[in-house]
């Protein structure tokens, strides 16, 4: 265990060091929020993949693999397909806009009121994304090091808050590429083969696990469709993802490196599901299936190697936690704070954004201390995001008759519908996303048709 701790301490020190290096490059708002819009192919691929693959997609997919088998990969597959979709369909027009937030598109197409209403939804989503991965960081450290959960949250999450606040997107990009490499080596090339070997090899998995564990549909088509609706479309409208698209140096880099990142996410999901299947054979009677990942790491790996894989897991979790945190602070500083500040240019400086990152980082830590299930929390975040914002955003892009009143009605009613059915039917139910999209679409179309369309600035659909 001493060797494991040494490996992890080296990793943590490297992350903080890169955070301070990123601070030297973050001289203005553009540097702090979108890395100067100057990332090359490998940095862009690494930061996009690391942003998506966090607590739910690592710890959660291993858990799904433990419970359902190979079909647990659909969570990561939906995220990966979303990255491929946004890279091929939206990256080019997004880069031409030279903006910072998703909600700025809504302002261009509708009005400042639509921007502010959508920013409130986006802020909740981004905070939950940051909290989810912080929870997973705490879970890993609690199981492997025997620390109290709250101590694990404050240590692991505090590191994320520190390097995110210091250097912004440059720090995140530098740490993400290291985290991407560690994730790939630790989970795909070390933990997956060693856990399968510990289970007795592939033939032992086939012999000891039910046949359903090898079916890609065992998790249920209703769940697969729900994952697609929530995560695929959530990627299309998530501030954390758009903010990464804005960092690309060129449209070509955004398209090709983004597509490669999406394919990587799908393969990563397969690897995580296989680790969960191996854990089911090695540790068939876990009291808490949420600990499947940490338990198989503890059981199957020797000292030193275990530390590298723990660092890989922390890398996956920290990258997504930092992405959610920066997305939240960007939304707050660029979209919401100007409503309350007498000095309308306060969000221009990197210092203002650093202050928001620090304050919201403390809020993320507080949320992580009171929430437990990472997949349920991720579902809550994406249900609110997709249910409230997908329809108005698609309307902003594709429907000329859309109005501000229709967009706001769709956001409010879609979000409230998602919240109602999550409360009444549970976070794992399929009804919240189905009903919220239906209510959002009906209200958007009906209100838009009965209200006048005001003259607005060109939006995404009309930008040349």
TrEMBL record:
**What keywords does the record list, in alphabetical order?**
Cell membrane, Ion transport, Membrane, Sodium, Sodium transport, Symport, Transmembrane, Transmembrane helix, Transport
Q: Kindly list the places in or outside the cell where this protein is found, as annotated in its UniProt entry.
A: Membrane
**UniProt-listed Gene3D superfamilies:** Sodium/glucose cotransporter
Any one GO CC term of the record: plasma membrane
GO BP: carboxylic acid transport; sodium ion transport
Report the membrane topology from the UniProt record.
Answer: Multi-pass membrane protein
Output one GO MF annotation.
Answer: symporter activity
Q: What is its main location?
A: membrane
Question: Pfam family example for this protein?
Answer: SSF
Looking up PROSITE patterns in the UniProt record yields:
NA_SOLUT_SYMP_2, NA_SOLUT_SYMP_3
**Where is the chain membrane-spanning?**
6-23, 43-66, 72-95, 116-141, 147-166, 178-196, 216-237, 258-279, 308-334, 355-375, 381-399, 406-427, 433-451
What InterPro entries is this protein classified in? Answer: Na/Glc_symporter_sf, Na/solute_symporter, Na/solute_symporter_CS, Sodium:Solute_Symporter
Q: Does the keyword Transport apply?
A: yes
Q: Check the record and name the PANTHER family matching this protein.
A: SODIUM-SOLUTE SYMPORTER-RELATED (PTHR48086:SF7), SODIUM/PROLINE SYMPORTER-RELATED (PTHR48086)
Tell me its family.
Belongs to the sodium:solute symporter (SSF) (TC 2.A.21) family.
This protein is called what? Solute:Na+ symporter, SSS family
């Amino acid at each position: 265990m001493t060797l494991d701790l040494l490996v992890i301490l080296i990793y943590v020190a490297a992350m903080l060091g890169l955070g301070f290096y990123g601070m030297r490059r973050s001289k203005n708002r553009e540097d702090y929020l979108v890395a100067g819009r100057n990332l090359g192919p490998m940095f862009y691929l690494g930061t996009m993949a690391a942003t998506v693959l966090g607590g739910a997609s690592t710890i959660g997919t291993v858990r799904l693999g433990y419970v359902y088998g190979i079909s647990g990969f659909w969570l990561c597959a939906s995220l990966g397909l979303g990255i491929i979709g946004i890279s091929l369909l939206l990256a080019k027009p997004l880069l031409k806009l030279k903006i910072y937030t998703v909600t700025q598109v809504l302002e261009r197409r509708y009005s400042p009121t639509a921007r502010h209403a959508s920013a409130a939804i986006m802020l909740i989503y981004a905070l939950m994304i940051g909290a989810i991965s912080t929870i997973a960081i705490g879970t890993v450290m609690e199981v492997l090091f025997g620390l109290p959960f709250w101590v694990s949250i404050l240590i692991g999450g505090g590191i994320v808050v520190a390097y995110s606040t210091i250097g912004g997107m440059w720090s995140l990009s530098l740490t993400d590429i290291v985290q991407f490499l560690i994730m790939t080596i630790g989970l795909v090339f070390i933990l997956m083969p060693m856990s399968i070997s510990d289970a007795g090899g592939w033939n032992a998995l086939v012999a000891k696990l039910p046949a359903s564990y090898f079916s890609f549909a065992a998790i249920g088509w209703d769940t697969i469709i729900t994952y697609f609706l929530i995560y695929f479309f959530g990627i299309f409208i998530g501030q954390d993802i758009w903010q990464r698209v804005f960092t690309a140096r060129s449209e070509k880099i955004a398209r090709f490196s983004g597509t490669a990142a999406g394919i990587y996410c799908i393969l990563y999901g397969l690897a995580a599901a296989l680790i969960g299947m191996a854990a089911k054979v090695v540790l068939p009677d876990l009291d808490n299936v949420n600990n499947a990942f940490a338990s198989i790491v503890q059981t199957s790996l020797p000292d030193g190697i275990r530390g590298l894989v723990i660092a890989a897991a922390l890398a996956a979790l920290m990258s997504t936690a930092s992405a959610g945190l920066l997305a939240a602070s960007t939304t707050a500083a660029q979209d919401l704070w100007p409503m309350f500040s007498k000095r309308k240019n306060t969000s221009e400086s990197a210092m203002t954004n650093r202050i928001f990152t620090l304050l919201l980082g403390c809020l993320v830590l507080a949320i992580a201390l009171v929430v437990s299930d990472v997949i349920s929390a991720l579902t809550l975040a994406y249900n609110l995001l997709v249910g409230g914002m997908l329809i108005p955003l698609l309307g902003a892009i594709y429907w000329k008759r859309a109005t501000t009143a229709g967009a706001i009605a769709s956001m409010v009613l879609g979000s409230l519908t998602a919240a109602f059915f999550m409360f009444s039917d549970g976070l794992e139910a399929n009804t919240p996303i189905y009903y919220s999209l239906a209510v959002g679409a009906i209200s958007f179309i009906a209100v838009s048709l009965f209200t006048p369309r005001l003259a607005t600035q060109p939006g995404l659909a009309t930008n040349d």
